[in-house]
# Entry
Amino acid sequence: MTFTLTPSRRRVLKTLAALALARRVDSAFAQSTTSLPPKLVNAVYTRQILIITVCLLVAQMVLIAALLVRRSRLRLMADALRAGEARHGALLRALPDLLFVLNRDGVYLDYYAPEVSGLYAPPECFLGKHVRDIMPPDLAVRFERAFAEALVSREPVVTEYALDMTSGRCEYEARIVRCGDDKILSIVRDVTARKASERALADGEAALRASHIDNQTLAARLIVAQETERQRISRDLHDDLSQKLAVLNIEVTRLAADSPPEIRRRVDDISASVNEIAEHVHDLSHQLHPSRPEALGLVPAIRGVCVDMSRQHGITVEFRDDDVPLRIDGAISLCAYRLVQEALRNVVKHSGATRARVELTGVGSTLKLVVVDEGRGFVPDATGLSGLGLLSMRERVKLLDGEFGIHSEPGMGTRLEVRMPLAASVSHVLAADEQSPV
# Structure
């Protein structure tokens, strides 16, 4: 047993040492006073007795005070212990987890469970038993590995497993930590509901992604169908209506030649109107399905669009190109051409700008298109888009696996930036559209 020299014990020892010293002094004084008169000796003895009595009283008082202090400390320690036990009990009652204490060999020593029904086996069946005797064999092997890892690790070892309970199959998460030198604490939580929620969330996300892919495929098919229909209408206008207008104009010209002068002027006006209608039909045919990218190439075609916009709407459109390949996939050329058309229409209709700039650049295996104006700008919505035209542009770019970005602020103009891979292809969309029963 170890003896601890506390302050109170130190004071008692000092008092006893003083008493022993007083006795030795008294003994020495008695030997030295044998030759003194009896009255003087009695007076000296009386004084010594008083001193000894006072010392004894002081020693008793110090001893009593030390005992009282010790008792007070013990009472405080007992109160703190009860408070700690109450706090720990409240924490245990509030926890939904199961707690198991095992020795380093995997034998169950103690447990805590909010409800005994939540245990895999009754306490009397597993206390004092090895984990191999209680758990299924494959799970017992996993636990033994986790126990060995926890004994040499400062971090908790997490093990997830499932058990067939009376209420059905339940999933658990065990956090295993070392408890002292030779014990293991396993904190087990029922995560059945959480796992079910995670699976439901994952299924919902998968369904959402599938729906998003379906929407993208539908948008791609709509764009392809739109271009196909535009091509058909353009062909009909060019091959049918334009030819009929040309024949009509020839007949009107013949009629004018055979008519009197006063009627010829009226016929000439009709011929001019027919020519104007034919020109509009021709322009509409080329807008529906432009032949410039195929006939001239992408760079001359976009330069022509810029010139047409400048001439028709009185704005200055600057065009720059750099390192653009001469041969570009038809889908890429058509998409870039359509994007420039739509972007410049937005400049004319919405921005109020008098100047715009179009940049077309070949960057490695990608084609970069930038359209900038210095107009009034706008506030893009949460998706960065705020109009059907912009939505259509974005879907065109996504159809070719490209990137679409638009940056604008009120009063700061608008910048449209697109990157498309030069090797992009829409064959998979066309194939899907051909196989569609609709």
